[in-house]
Amino acid sequence: MFLESFRSSGVFTDYEIGIIFSPLRNDEKVKMLYLHWALKEAYVKAVGTGLVTNLLAIEFRGVNLHDTEDGAYDGVEVYVDGEKRPEWKLEVGRLSRGHYFAVAVDGWEGGDGGKGEIGGWRWIEFRKDIWDVWSEPMVN
Questions:
Q1: How far apart are CA 96 and CA 19, in angstroms?
Q2: Nearest Cα to 85, choosing from 60, 118, 50?
Q3: Mean pLDDT across the stretch 10-28?
Q4: Fewest Cβ atoms nearer than 10 Å: which of 13, 73, 107, 134?
């Protein structure tokens, strides 16, 4: 029932519904649903519109379960109103069993000479990389 409620939810395109429901096992269908949802969420956060966006206008292709078992992959493409948007860089990965993430970046032009390449992932430590940078020094 949970999965079936998404067939006509107005969240996923017909193409995405076909991909979500294509695995044979229900647990894999749920994982595909989570991956597609993570991509939709990452995209609408990146454009700054949130969930008021027409989610049916945004379609993701190249989403699969196989690659996420070994880590992050970036073979996903986004189409907006049927038009491929190659300036968007999307990455999908698995944090733990059943927990996925997606990141969307639009035409980033950083210190790479404007090539639009995205830097690599690195592990951050909350205290050192966030707390100490953005707050007053802690008094022990």
A1: 22
A2: 60
A3: 92
A4: 134
Cβ contact 54:40 at 8 Å: no
Please report, for the domain that includes residue 67, its CATH number: 3.90.470.20
Within a domain: 120: no
Two tokens, residue 78: 């986004």
What is the residue range of 48's domain? 4-109
CA separation for the pair 7, 23 (Å, rounded): 15
Q: The tokens of 97 are what?
A: 């069993």
Measured from the Cβ of residue 104, the count of other Cβ atoms closer than 10 Å reads 21
Domain count, the chain: 1
Q: pLDDT per residue over 44-95, tens digit each?
A: 999 888 878 899 999 999 998 775 555 667 789 999 999 999 999 888 877 7
CA atoms within 13 A on the CB side of 58: 23
Half-sphere exposure of 99 (CA within 13 A, CB side): 3
